[in-house]
Amino acid sequence: MADSSEEHRTARSSVADAVADAVVDAVADPVADARADDAVDDVADARAGGGVDEVDDEENALRTGPWWRHALWVSFVPLAGVAVGWLDSLHRFWPEEYGVPLLAEGAVWPYLVAWFAIGAAGAAVLRTAATRVPMRGATVLVLACTFMGTRLSLPGQPGPAVMAVVGAVLVLAAVGWAVLAVRRGGPQVPPDTAA
């Protein structure tokens, strides 16, 4: 993580140095004014084409697009969390006295289906809000909740009432997260039409 932020700082400082050098040249030499404009245009092109802020821009973007793209996200993100939770409960990577117990005897499919349904409901709420305002961390939230829920419920195998209560709490938490994001974000203009 430190390397990434160091690269980010280095990239920003090199861009800033290039622009500053072009401006100093333009002040010293009137003919160099065109070179300064070219340097500023090059920096703008680099940012538009990818640059160092590409991940931040992607995370802050509105999630517009066809409905099938949203349906795929709502389906595959919880499925990935459930699958990783199930695989983690099949094998122990640490000594037996540490951590959560392994998979208990009995049927696991009802728990896998329940956690997928809970994750898909929360993901649908968050994705709906992400079409209106930029939301950070929706994917991580859905993955973490479905992973931890699957991982913790497979060894203990709680009853249907406990699963319903936990599922309702998680879906209500997603609704709360979405409502806060929409209220704080307000109406958003897509980046292409912003002046």
What is the fold's blueprint, element by element?
Elements: H1 2-28, H2 33-49, H3 54-59, H4 67-90, H5 109-130, H6 138-156, H7 160-185
Helix pairs in contact: 1-2, 4-5, 4-6, 5-6, 5-7
Describe the protein.
- This protein has about 200 residues and is mainly alpha-helical.
- The protein is built from seven helices and no strands.
- The two termini are about 35 Å apart.
Q: Distance between the terminal alpha carbons, to the nearest Å?
A: 34 Å
Oligomeric form? single chain
What class would the helix/strand composition place it in? mainly alpha
Strand % is under 5%
Mass-distribution shape: globular
Uncertain residue segments: 32-36, 49-56
Largest sheet: none
Q: What is the count of β-strands?
A: 0
- Number of discrete helical segments: 7
Question: How would you summarize what this structure contains?
Answer:
With 195 residues, the protein is mainly alpha-helical.
Task: List its salient traits.
72% helix, mainly alpha, 195 residues, 7 helices, globular
